[in-house]
Amino acid sequence: MTVPKIIKTFKTSDINSENAELPEKQEFHSKNKSANKIGTDYNFKRQTIWKLVLFYGTLHVLGWYGLYRACVYCHTVTVLYSIIVGVASQIGINMGAHRLYAHRSFKAKLPLRIALVILDTIAGMYTLYYWVRDHRQHHKYTDTDADPHNSSRGFFFSHVGWLMSKKHPAVREYGKTIDVHDLESDKAVMFQKRYYLPLYVFLNSIIVAVPVWLWNETALNSIFASYFFRYSLFFNITMCVNSWAHFFGSKPYDKNIRPAESNVLSFLVVGEGWHNYHHTFPWDYRAAEFGLHYSLTTFLIDLSNKFGLAYDLKCASKQMVQKRSLRTG
Ligand SMILES: [Zn+2]
Ligand SMILES: [Zn+2]
Known about the structure:
The protein is mainly α. The protein has 16 helices and 4 strands. The protein has one domain. This is Fatty acid desaturase domain-containing protein.
């Protein structure tokens, strides 16, 4: 496979080059040198927000009931449709919120940005603006008390517990240092931020209405399968990147960090499970080593690149990856 010209491959020497675009871009997500000093206070007692426990608990009960209805009452096409919508919304998070906006690993033309923001809204992981802020903070202070979903505090906390707990004081304090000003000039992101709730309700209402309109599914079946079941399933798949990917797998690129490589997770999260590589080279649009792994998300970025909708794709050269692997892997 040849690398198209609009892909920028960085070499080890670029890291120290004053003119290289890479170091300044790394400001968005690279690990803060003081992060190791923050560490994790294992005696810190988290404060549970009970109304959020009730909210996520109810959502999951409805999700399980949605699975039951999907298996017993729904048309097969409704179940397939729900999965397809879930995967598409996952692309909104992976390709849009994560690789495009949080890490600036490529640039995108407005039509592509609008499409990704729509898919991200359907996913329902809250506004892209705050998602990016939290994710940049996660990379900057990985697995310390300043990381919103610090996996050192346990699997459950990094999976969903952090969403139902009061923020650690360090998350608040260091959160103020996270720069998201670049998002303020992006019309698609700011539109979503301004009208998030009505947009979310409108788009998901259309998602639920399609099976009723097109193949006479009952409204109740469609609500439970294409909303509650789909949302609960893909919510947990997405959250596995914060939990599972920081607990299980190999560490060929940096053995000193918790994030690890997982083929199974990458299959489920359409390409975001090679997490040891991603935390080592967060600005690489492939989120995986070239030639070793390939995902639907990477395929869609490459495809958009071919059609001129995505450009300036950044990736690490083979030599850069090998050098880093020998040094820290
Ligand atoms: Zn991570
Ligand atoms: Zn990331």
